[in-house]
Amino acid sequence: MDNKNSFWQSEKGKAAIKLGLWMIFIFVLIAIVIFSERDNSNNVINDTPNNENEEVETPTYEFENYNDMQDKLLKNNYEYVYTITTSDSKYIYTGIKDGTKELGFKEDATGVIKYFVDDTGTYQVNLDNTTLIDTLYQNVDSSYLDIALVFDNLSEFLYSVTKNGDMRTIIYDKEGYQVTVLTDTENITNITITVDTTTYELEFTKIGECATINFVV
């Protein structure tokens, strides 16, 4: 007995005791970690949605009647940008149309002018002065800028319709020139007319939302 007791009290015995205690501690620690991970895995909520059988809803759009859109454009005020591109020139008209009145700017290679149109004629505006002119649509065919006339000329021709989301494309099969009309669900937004080497690109915004033109010659 004395020999056994003296062994545990010796340096080797003490080292063996410390080693045994460390092994027990490590074993207990490993056991705690294992059981803890098992509990956590049982309590995990799967937040990943199962989309395998879930159908993605495609939004549907209802478009107003095309003829009603034409009437709306003709009867209301609007802002416009008309870009006319020929083989060697470019003209941009930016303005507001309100009934028979128009107020806008023309830009071409020679510069920019301000203009006003009403029942009495077409005027160039320079500050408080106005000058009657007949050159506003020089070198372009203004009949393609007359929206009522454009729709009237197209009324007897067939057209194809393509829809892409909330946009609709209408293409006319008309001999002599090509016409493409773009609409959103409520309004006509663009009319593009191509005649020979000239393109008339007409863009309309704020239909029925513009302020009344109070400019007086």
Structural class: alpha+beta
The first-to-last residue Cα distance is 129 Å
Number of domains: 2
Query: What order do the helices and strands follow?
Result: HHHEEEEEEHEEEEE
Please, how many helices?
A: 4
The geometry reads as elongated
**Count of individual beta strands:** 11
What's the arrangement of secondary structure elements?
Blueprint lengths: L1 H8 L1 H33 L22 H10 L2 E8 L4 E9 L2 E8 L2 E8 L2 E6 L2 E4 L14 H8 L4 E6 L2 E6 L5 E6 L4 E8 L2 E8 L12
Antiparallel strand pairs: 1-2, 1-11, 2-3, 3-4, 4-5, 5-6, 7-8, 8-9, 9-10, 10-11
Helix pairs in contact: 1-2
Task: Please characterize this protein's 3D structure.
The protein starts with a helix and ends in a 12-residue tail after the last strand. The longest helix has 33 residues. The protein has an 11-stranded antiparallel beta sheet, with helices on one face. The chain has 2 domains: 42 residues; 140 residues, outer membrane lipoprotein receptor (LolB), chain A (Clam), CATH 2.50.20.20. The protein has 217 residues and is α+β, with helices and mostly antiparallel strands. It contains 4 helices and 11 strands, in the order H-H-H-E-E-E-E-E-E-H-E-E-E-E-E. Helix 1 packs across helix 2. A hairpin with a 2-residue loop joins strand 4 and strand 5.
